[in-house]
Every structure is written in C-alpha cells, then in structure tokens.
Amino acid sequence: MIDIREHMGFLKVKFFLFLLISAINRKISGQTLTCGYNTFFIQYPFRLLQEGKSSHHRHRGHSDQFILKCNSQGLAVLNLPFSGDFYVRNIDYFRQKIQLYDPGHCLPGRLMNFSLSFSPFVAVAYQNYTFISCPPESPHNSTVISCLSNSTASVLATSLMSKTEEILELKGCNAIVTLQIPVSSPNQYEYNGFDDDLLLAWDAPSCNGERKGRSRSKPLFSIILLCVITISIALLGAFFCIACCLGFTRLLLKINEAGVQGSNSFIIAVWDMSAAPLDESRISSGTEELTVGGSQCISGPNGDSCPICLEEYKESERLRRIHNCHHCFHACCLDKWLQTEITCPVCRNIAV
C-alpha cells in the first residue's frame, strides 16, 4: 500500500504541473488581469481600466463597451450606458455570461429603471413582474422589498397573475407598475427574492485584430501544451508504477516473513511431538498383544521374525501389533522403540 509520504508527493507533482500549465497558458494566450481579491480573471473581450484613468486609449481587438474599472475597494465595476454602475461577481467566458450585483444592495429598484440600450449585453430572458404597494399591516404573505419600503408602505413584487390578483384584493394594496425585467430562469425572484444577482450574456464581438495577434502564438502554444501534457502523463505514470512496485514488494516481504514464522512453528511443534516419550497407556491404546502359536504364522504384512531385533518368533512369545498398519514386533522391542519414537519402525507411519 502507498504510505502518506508517497501520497503527498503525488499531490505535489500534480499541483506543480497545474501551475506550470496555467503559467504557460497565461503567458502565450495573452494578458490576463485580476482586480483585487476577485476570483475571476479579466481577459478578452474585457479590458481593465484603473479608476481615475482615461478610457480613450483602445487596445487592439477590444471594444470600449467591454471596459471594467477596478475601484479603490478592489471591486470590478461595469458601467451600462443607461443603467449605471454594477459590481461584477463573476465572469463565465465559456458560456459568455457575466454576473452583476447592485453596489447599493437594492437590485429591484435598479431593475425598475433598467435598460440595456447601447450595451453589448442582453438578458438571458425577460419576465413580467408587478410591483405592488401595501400597508405594512396587510396580510399578503409575500416577501417585502425592504429597500423600497418605508414605515407607511410595504413594496413587494410577483410574477404570478393569480397572486397579483389576490394581493390587489386586499385593502390598501395598489399596483405600482408592471415591467419586463431580466431573469436567468423562470420565476427567479418569485422564490429566491431579489437577493439573487443579475445575469447577462454577451455575443462574441468582432475580434479580427485579436485573432490576428494571437494566430502566430497558437501553433507554438499547441506544441508546448502537448509537450507539457505528455511529460506530465509520463511522470505521473512513472510515479504510480514506482509506488505500486514498492507496495507490492512490501506485501511480498510481509507474506514471506509470515510464511517463515509459520514454517518454524510447524517444525518446532513436530520436533517437540516426536521427541516426547510415550507412556504405557498410549502404547497400549495404539497396539494389541498377540501370542505366537504352534504354527508361528502371524497374520498381516509380517514375516516370521521381529523387524527390530531380527530374531525369529518362537512359540508362546509375546508380540505387539500396531493398530494403524498391522505390523508385528516383539512386545519388549516395540515398547522400547515407542519410548523414543512415535512412528512404526517398518513403514514410518504414526503408530499411536
């Protein structure tokens, strides 16, 4: 198994390769900037302008409509020509979506006078919302828009016709205005309130200059990226193979050690068992006594002489036969043998 040090080394290699690829990508594909502590990068088609500087110097391939300012608080600011400034929460360059929120924390008030005219941005979708004013004590069961309300009137908004009619039937409730406001999903503000951000999309602007400027770097970037990826895969593969080999070697060593210990235990146990003398009760239980008859013939796999002392059996001599293998011996010879051994003198099988 891979120990914790090998695992940490594997993570360090991955992190280093990630930083290397990111650095090469930023170096080759163009200038990438950030504003303050924002988690998103500012790159084409957007251009970052420090607060207090003029915007009349256009960068090649950039549009003045995609200018972001970085204010003194380290926040990215987008100005919409007829709607004012919004703070930028995030930019999704792949989906071409920008997420905005109101600096004054009153998005519904901004949406009541919202326009995207003369800007490159479009709403993901539009939906009709009716803004209603009710007395503070009115039982409407709807979320009040606190930034538009005061001590004498509570302002709320809904996109549901049935709910609008229900609220307007209450005493003192009047419709302020019905507007089409931008939403990212149906009934976005109906269930989540107006704490959600404003999501806008943009179409890819004309970027001939940008493409020409980058066209030369594309082959080089592709070659370098391919080399980095190939080397990364090779390094990770080699590291993984080495780690697996080390783990397998350790496993074999442990199995070998366990096998040696088990073999030694078995040898010791057999040696102890064979060295232990047998008492008379065990000898009697594993053998039977016989007496040589007049014919001096012994049944079973036996001859007419004792395999231990090699003397022939005589009439009326006392013999002893082993139950397991049926070999016969002089009783006195076998008794002495079994005092030091537990196997049959002839076949070497366990006697008792």
Structural class determined from secondary elements: alpha+beta
Domain count: 3
Radius of gyration: 48 Å
**Average pLDDT value?**
79
Order of helices and strands: HEEEEEHEEEHEHEHHHEEEH
The first-to-last residue Cα distance is 48 Å
Strand neighbour order, sheet with most strands: 1-2-3-4-5-10-6
Low-confidence stretches: 55-62, 206-217
Strand percentage: 15-25%
Q: Output the number of helix runs.
A: 8
DSSP E strands, number: 13
For the sheet with most strands, the description reads:
7 strands, mixed
What's the gist of this structure?
This protein is α+β, with helices and mostly antiparallel strands and 352 residues long. The protein is 36% helix and 21% strand.
What does this structure look like?
- This protein is an alpha+beta fold and 352 residues long.
- The protein has 3 domains: 1-30 and 217-275; 31-215, no CATH class; 280-338, Zinc/RING finger domain, C3HC4 (zinc finger) (Herpes Virus-1).
- Helices cover 36% and strands 21% of the residues.
- It has helices at 4-29, 107-111, 161-168, 188-192, 208-215, 217-275, 280-286, 331-338, and strands at residues 47-50, 67-70, 76-80, 84-92, 97-101, 121-123, 125-134, 154-158, 174-183, 198-202, 287-291, 318-322, 328-330.
- The strands form 3 sheets. It has a 7-stranded mixed sheet with strand order 1-2-3-4-5-10-6, with no helix packed on it. It has a 3-stranded antiparallel sheet with strand order 8-7-9. A 3-stranded antiparallel sheet has the order 11-12-13.
- A hairpin with a 3-residue loop joins strand 3 and strand 4.
- Helix 1 packs antiparallel against helix 6.
- The chain is elongated.
